[in-house]
Amino acid sequence: MRVVELHDSDWDHHSNLANSLPRKCKDVDRPMSPLISDLKERGMLDDTLVIWAGEFGRTPLAQGIGGEGEKTKPGRDHHKDAFTVWLAGGGAKGGVSHGRTDEFGFNVAANPVHVHDLNATVLHLLGLDHERLTFKYQGREFRLTDVHGKVVKALLA
To answer: FRET label pair with 141: which of 27, 32, 70, 80, CA 20 to 30 Å apart?
Structure first.
């Protein structure tokens, strides 16, 4: 059994990015790499879907300017339009980078994946048809992927 120690620092890097982000990346990378290696070594990666995502993206702009333009320990603000999610195993195509932002990391420049599409793709990888997962509420049929979700076939092995 592997025991992973996580730092007590928070995930919300509105300040002190230069120190907090490298430490948080180690907190994530250290356990995820051996997890995937262990699953692969034991022949379990094909049947196990590993999903890593933050709660949102981060702007590429510095946040935390002090009085009179003096920089404090800057961070980055929340960014709803461009963020990173990765999938491993469970029928996801390995070694693929799908989508990209502009040179500033601000706007989606190619192959956008809406959250409904990501949900549809994950449900597909789990063997579920997202279009059949509906429920009726106030006379309308609803589903997790609303009416927009499409499976992103480029992410499938």
So the answer is: 80
- pTM for the predicted model, two decimal places: 0.80
In the chain, which ranges are E strands?
50-53, 57-58, 63-65, 71-75, 78-79, 85-88, 100-101, 108-110, 134-137, 140-143
Q: What amino acid occupies position 157?
A: A
Give 156's strand partners. 92
CA distance 75 to 147: 36
Name the DSSP letter for residue 5: P
Q: Which tens digits make up the pLDDT trace of 122-137?
A: 999 999 999 998 888 8
pLDDT bracket for residue 61 (50, 70, 90): confident
Q: Answer for the pair 87, 51: CB distance below 8 angstroms, yes or no.
A: yes
Query: In percent, how much of the chain has pLDDT > 90?
Result: 40
DSSP state letter for 69: G
Please give the distance of CA 79 from its chain centroid, rounded to a whole number: 12
Q: In which region does residue 150 sit, left (phi positive, over 0), alpha (psi from -120 to 50) or beta (all else)?
A: beta
